[in-house]
Amino acid sequence: MTRQPTIEDVARTAGVSKGLVSLALNGRPGVAQETRKRIDAAVAELGWRPSANARGLATKRAYSLGFIVRRDPITFQADPFFASFLAGVESVLAERDQVLVLSVVPDVEREFEAYRRLTSDRRVDGFLITDLLQDDPRVRLVADLGQRAVTLGRPDSESPFPAIVRDYDAGIDELLTHLAELGHRRVAHVAGDERMQHATTRLTRHLEVAARLGLQTIVEHTDFSPESGAAATHRLLDRSERPTAIVYANDPMAIAGIAVAHERGLTLPRDLSITGMDGSDTGRFVYPALTTLDNDPVGWGRAAATALLSYIENGDGDDVTLPAAALILRSSTAPPGSPG
Amino acid sequence: MTRQPTIEDVARTAGVSKGLVSLALNGRPGVAQETRKRIDAAVAELGWRPSANARGLATKRAYSLGFIVRRDPITFQADPFFASFLAGVESVLAERDQVLVLSVVPDVEREFEAYRRLTSDRRVDGFLITDLLQDDPRVRLVADLGQRAVTLGRPDSESPFPAIVRDYDAGIDELLTHLAELGHRRVAHVAGDERMQHATTRLTRHLEVAARLGLQTIVEHTDFSPESGAAATHRLLDRSERPTAIVYANDPMAIAGIAVAHERGLTLPRDLSITGMDGSDTGRFVYPALTTLDNDPVGWGRAAATALLSYIENGDGDDVTLPAAALILRSSTAPPGSPG
DNA sequence: GTTGTCTTTTGAACCGGTTTAAGAAAGTGC
DNA sequence: GCACTTTCTTAAACCGGTTCAAAAGACAAC
User: Are residues A253 and A193 in the same domain?
Assistant: First the structure.
């Protein structure tokens, strides 16, 4: 374990000054071709890589992005979205020699603290903001801190940051059309946490499309947790006029809903059709396998990281639109009352 | 958004040299009480926080821990363990002004690259290593890189690093005793990926205890994914002599197993008792709610981060033993053939 | 008043990069 | 052969901390 080489070592083996090495490696003009080659050779020979600390100190950058996840212990339980999202983020960061700094915090206080700390310690050059709330205070906070960010989804309030957006409308269209074609007329929507932006946009769209298709909608509100999804399912199944199909705003709730239906002795999908949303693999392994709307979390990750980096580097950035969410048909939907 | 204050600013307002500020703030002896107070006041007034980059450059530290997760797209899907584990890690890092650098990578090559890159860029002071494999190559790699680490579990091969361990044996004891007392005699074990350390230790223990209790054990091997858990369940239920209870090496497989049982028209837990392991909340929301072995992932996170930091600071560290895993009784177990 | 000891503070060097003004070398024109 | 450009390279300053040898001050003893 010998000392790692520094730029000084590279300069020495290439027989030039360290300033020139820096110029050459950052692709600055005005370095002779031949010299550039000698420097590259020296770098390769020594296996030199710049110290992120030293470079960051000089350039006032962290070469890191921050991602703060509030793990409201009830709601959050290991949303399948995150692992894939992070893989997408990493794939672009690795290419650019950048890094992701992650904080998982239990409550809003700690969350705000984390934003402040990562900023004041100059740990990150920008933040990825997911799970937007109505009038999300994080947007204000991050803007006030003078930090950069991108948001997954477009905030309802004023935001100086680029937004990554995906069209869910078309998918919800497909989903409800599918149910309507199967013959369902009474379709419930188990909405997510009202404070979350995507919960309400999904509900709104459901209501619009249902109206257009002549479907009756019953709405239940939840906090996105499987627990509350289960409770909502009980309420729906206790009604005198039961829905014949239930659309859940995410997969974990839909899975909990399936369990409730089993518990109550229903045969799925004959007695009840169920769909998720924000599709994940998990839904493939429950019985019956869950019909859902795909959400390509890796795509979200790649897009968000790319947009944030270019926003940081150029000081401006445009919104990015991802391909529309598509319906994944599995086996949790069927005509109402169809033979088991 | 004015420039953030530097230590020089603090020195000026306190009327001392910047060297002294540094000494005072790092609690070095030989600074007059009165001066120390003036410096603290200046820090508070300006809201100064040290630049992690500058400090790291001077001390050759990153004040960051690295955590690399290989998201073998098949196996990994959002293991509920991670969110809680990370929350535990964060809780100790936040107190110490340190930070977690996370990489989620798709394959072993990228994984090794990530260890190398984080090391050569001096991004982290050490690594958290989870999901130990048999003769895990990461231990060698990290040691060869001259990095520090702690492992979750004790590697079977030579390791220079402190290990965090939890006794599962007692829990498996409890679990099997519970099944035996219910009257089960043929108990299957759906083991995890054989290459993973904890998969085989759990299996080994199961076999020992089952022998002691006079239980017959049928073993199926999997890769820990729900998909393979489902397949294993089918194989078990296709046998002429079916097991009356199945112990799965993790919760996601157990949940998939429940779905398979439903699909085949079994009534749970009457026709089949099912238990998980590595307990998570998810198991509460399936039907029937899953009996499992608790695993306090937050505790793992706190212990791992604490141990790694002190190993980094002191250059040596002892293994840490967590409280034994305990049985969580829910409703997926019952006497065999008991009335639904 | 001098000397010595102990405590407190300063100033400069250093960590490993980037940036820029100034210097050296090479090329051009006459 | 000399002056003038243009191209390439160096040296030094800088980023914001830490560290340490040496200076300064305070105090006691003689």
Answer: yes
Q: Which residues contact B137 (CB under 8 A, 6 or more apart)?
A: none
User: B139 is in which domain, residue-wise?
Assistant: 64-166+298-322
Domains held by chain B: number: 3
Kindly state whether residues A183 and A282 are assigned to the same domain: yes
Residue B285's φ and ψ, nearest 5 degrees, are -110, 15
Which residues 261-280 in chain A show a CB within 8 A of chain B? 262-263, 280
Residues of B (3-62) placing their beta carbon closer than 7 angstroms to any atom of strand D are 3-4, 6-8, 18-19, 21-23, 25-26, 48-51, 53-55, 57-59
Same domain, yes or no: A226 and A245: yes
Mean pLDDT within A69-91: 77
pLDDT in tens, B201-237: 999 999 999 999 999 999 999 988 887 888 999 999 9
**Best residue of B2, B55, B75, B121 to probe chain A, by most A CBs closer than 10 Å:** B121
Contacts of B26 (CB under 8 A, 6+ apart): none
Count Cβ atoms below 10 Å from residue B36 Cβ, excluding itself. Answer: 16
- What's the average model confidence in pLDDT over B27-43? 92
Q: Is residue A56 part of a domain?
A: no
Task: Indicate whether B205 and B307 sit together in one domain.
Answer: no
Q: In chain A, what is the straight-line distance between the N-terminal and C-terminal CA atoms, in Å? A: 67
The answer to whether B336 touches B183, Cβ cutoff 8 Å, is yes
pLDDT classification of A223: cutoffs 50, 70, 90: confident
Take residue A303 and report the two structure tokens written for it: 């897009």
State the average pLDDT for chain B: 92
Query: Is there a domain that residue A329 lies in?
Result: no
